Every structure is written in structure tokens, then in C-alpha cells.
Amino acid sequence: MRYRVSPEDVWAADVHHVPRYERSRVHLASGVEAFVYLQPGRQDAARTLEGLIAAEQRALSLLDIIESRGIVAPGRSELEIERDIFSIASAQFGVTAHWHDRVVRAGPNTLCVAGESAPEQIVGKDDIVFLDLGPVFGDWEADVGRSYAVGSDPEKIRLVADLDIVFDAVRARYIADDAITGARLYAIAVEEAERRGWRFGGRIAGHLVGKFPYARSPAGRDGGRISPANAQRMRDPDALGRPRNWILEIHLVSPNGNFGGFCERLLLPS
To answer: In the chain, what percentage of residues exceed pLDDT 70?
Structure first.
């Protein structure tokens, strides 16, 4: 029997079924797409990681196309860039869903964190812009971010370069400590940002990721952030004994608080 439900009904069902079952998307014989709850086995862990890595690679390819077409350019509004990104994602990758809506931040909006509203900005000639993409490829969420220095401002160019340096430094310290907690890794992200002369601008430094719509579900958010409040060890398995998968977010802000930059991708253990 198939039921028509609202998004709120789905979230409530998620909370009820987690941690014993996992929601999966299926195609019925009638051609209709539906969700079912299945009890996953531990053998699904490798397949989950493979799915997430494949989704990320496609999202990174989307970023490469955006760059090659010069979509991020002075004089363009955040909304214009965003519309082009959604159009490319649909035409080139068949993407019909994005798990978050605000994907372009320019100028003073680069100080904003995820979900924070702000007036639309026009990209200036010596500006900084970051893209925070959440395309959904089939069953899998991707979550990638990349920043761009538009023009020749040396500090903005330096910040963009330092994003990858800080990301790699935080990831290395995660790999080196099997018992690291979410709170400790957040503190490390702050330390590494300050080591390069920046402030850390994020309220979190990442989150759990899984099959769509994991990130939207309350069940996916509870205890699943790299933040000062999370004293749980990040490598602790879930209730079914499977490893959990994380996104690492680096948000750097200039010392004067005038601009910021952002990058994110999967936090792979090796």
C-alpha cells in the first residue's frame, strides 16, 4: 500500500524509524517513485561511502564547468549566478533536487553561515565569492564548497589559497587521532585558521552526510555536527555498527570582519 505524505510526515517517520531502519528511494512497478524503510546491513557501509564519493566527484565536475563558463564574474548578482548553476546542474547532470537553496555568497554575504538570510549582492570587481552546492544525484547528497577571488585583491587571493591549506591541516589532525571528538576537531579548525592569520567563521566545522534527504532530516542533524557541543567521538559507529561519514567545512574570515571564504567536502579517513 502506498501513502501520500507531507515532508513533515516523512521527518516524523524518520525520527520514529531511526536508528533501526534507513529510508530508501524505490521505483514501483507502476512507475511511481516512493520511499520505503529497510533495515540496512553492515555490508552496506562500503556501498554508502562509494555512493557519497561518486556524488562528490560529480559535484566537483559541476564546479569545474561553472568555472570554465565564467559564471562567477563582476557585475553579476548572486541570484543570476545561482540560476545559471541550477540550469547547468539540470542540463549536464540531470539534477532535479538540491538539499539547500542558497548556494552563492558574495561580498559581505561571505560572512554568513548556512541558512542565514542576507540581502542579495552584486559581485564587485575586486570581490570574493563562494559557492556552497548541495546537488542530489539519485539517492546521494553531495556537499561541496569553493571560493573565488574576483580581481586582484592580495588578501582575498591569500584567503582563497589558505582555505585548502587549513582544510588539509584539519583533516591531517583528524586522521592522526582515532578518538577525536566533534568538539575537539572544531577547536582544531579554529586553531588552524588563527595559525594562518584568519578567524574561523563557522558555528560548526561540518556535519554527518548520507543518503538524501539525510541532511534535511532532524534524525540526521541530532548529534551530527562538528561543533563545540559535540563530545561524541567522530569515529564511533552508528547504532547498527556502521561507520559514519562526515563533511568538513572551513569558513575563514578576515581579521577586520569585512569578508570571508568557504570550502567543504568529504572528510575521508585516508
So the answer is: 84
- Three-state secondary structure of the chain: CCCCCCHHHHHHHHHHHCCCCEEEEEECCCCCEEEEEECCCCCHHHHHHHHHHHHHHHHHHHHHHHHHCCCCCCCCEHHHHHHHHHHHHHHHHCCCCECCCCCEEEHHHHHCCCCCCCCCCECCCCEEEEEEECEEECCEECCEEEEEEECCCHHHHHHHHHHHHHHHHHHHHHHCCCCCEHHHHHHHHHHHHHHCCCEECCCCCEEECCECCCCCCHHHHCCCECCCCCCCECCCCCCCCCCCCEEEEEEEECCCCCCEEEEEEECCCC
In this prediction, residues 16-29 reach a mean pLDDT of 65
Structure-model confidence comparison of residues 29 and 136, the more confident one: 136
Question: In terms of CATH architecture, what is 40-266?
Answer: Alpha-Beta Complex (3.90)
Q: Where are the domains of the chain?
A: 1-39, 40-266
pTM for the whole structure: 0.85
What confidence tens digit (pLDDT) does each residue in 67-118 have? 999 999 999 999 999 999 999 999 999 998 888 878 999 999 999 998 899 9
